[in-house]
Amino acid sequence: MVRSFAPLLLVLAMLAAGRAPAAEWEGALRGTGRLLLDTNAPRDFSDQLTPSPERDFALSLLGSAEGRGSFEQAQLVGRYELGTRAYLRYQDENTLVQSGAVEASHALGTALGIGLEGHAKDRRGGSRSYSDLGTTAFLEYAPDVRLALRVRAGARRFVYRPDPTANFGGPEVGVLGRYRFDRRHSLSVFGDWNSRRFGTPPRARPPGTGGGSGLLAGRRQDAALTAGASYTYRGPLALGLTYAFQENSSNSYGETIRRHRVSANAGVRLPWRVTLLAQGSLGIIQYPDGIYLSPEIILVEEDEGQNSLSVKLARPLTESLDLEVTWGIWSTRLPRNSLTYTRQVFSTGFTWRY
């Protein structure tokens, strides 16, 4: 799917370049290798009666490439990532993940621009194997360096291999706005809406809950909404704070979900050229029909849990090689049955940049 987007966007960028004699090209490569200790390798929920989750060691490799071509009035940007994780004991949790995006834009004067973007993500292995594909057209408005606004519209297709009933597709629209108060302070607002059409009929209410049982006529349809705002500070301390509200409203019983999520990230330079990066999030999830988790509820956002905290220490060894030590914890609690999900990951490794 990524290959099908690339030729179209490349042709658009070449045509948009017009009489530009040449393009300015720049790019970057990055590779990371880590050895991990995972305290919940099978990603199991547990309670007081079940045994503690099993630990396992894993090797993680991640490579990424970015490229940018700037013409007189056009720009072409491409990104690609390839990552794999291999466990020592729980080999069923081994994963291979690829993601890529290509974007071409053309300036319409000094403040307006139009463009096309295509993206794809493919995950194989483990308990979650899926493909997430999309393409959008966008309009940008940036009258100066302080203000930037992007409005987009396109289509999305999600394919979940273990359970085809979770497959969906449909149109989506979105908006992203950013305002920079000065060099250090900026504020962003964002919103996305996606109409998800499934190939299966919606589920009716079970007996005793005010409706009939079984499946209803017609097809299941969901409306997924995301809206929020984020604040960023860049100074001696890099700081970011984001609030997001997500709602998946469905005509199928048990598939509606609402979530409030607050996340923060910070970065600071320490002595001996050490950089400290921290990231955390808190979430509140509501299930109006009670808890009936279908696969895509926990798949689409790639969440490890409602709440999370991660810390990374990095120190350069050379101009292009860093030593990294990381720790992260993710947790979720289901209120009705007291099941909990907790997972910690400790890792150490190296990152190479070119």
Overview of the molecule:
Residues 1-22 form the signal peptide. This is DUF560 domain-containing protein. It comes from Myxococcus virescens. Keywords: Signal. There is one protein chain. This protein is mainly beta and 354 residues long. The protein has one domain (2-353): Porin, CATH 2.40.160. 6% of the residues lie in helices and 61% in strands. A 16-stranded antiparallel beta barrel has the order 1-2-3-4-5-6-7-8-9-10-11-12-13-14-15-16. A hairpin with a 7-residue loop joins strand 7 and strand 8 (168-180). The two termini are 28 Å apart.
What descriptors fit this protein?
Porin, DUF560 domain-containing protein, 16-stranded antiparallel beta barrel, signal, 2 helices, 16 strands, 354 residues, mainly beta
Briefly characterize the structure:
With 354 residues, the chain is mainly beta. It contains two helices and 16 strands.
Order of helices and strands: HEEEEEEEEEEEEEHEEE
Largest beta-sheet characterization: 16 strands, antiparallel, barrel
From the 3D coordinates, which CATH architecture would you assign? Beta Barrel
Mean pLDDT: 86
The CATH topology comes to Porin
Instruction: Report the end-to-end length measured between terminal Cα atoms.
Output: 28 Å
Number of helices: 2
Q: What is the strand and helix layout of this fold?
A:
Blueprint: H1 2-17, E1 24-38, E2 56-70, E3 74-87, E4 95-108, E5 112-125, E6 130-141, E7 147-160, E8 168-180, E9 185-198, E10 221-233, E11 237-250, E12 257-270, E13 274-286, H2 295-299, E14 307-316, E15 321-333, E16 340-353
Antiparallel strand pairs: 1-2, 1-16, 2-3, 3-4, 4-5, 5-6, 6-7, 7-8, 8-9, 9-10, 10-11, 11-12, 12-13, 13-14, 14-15, 15-16
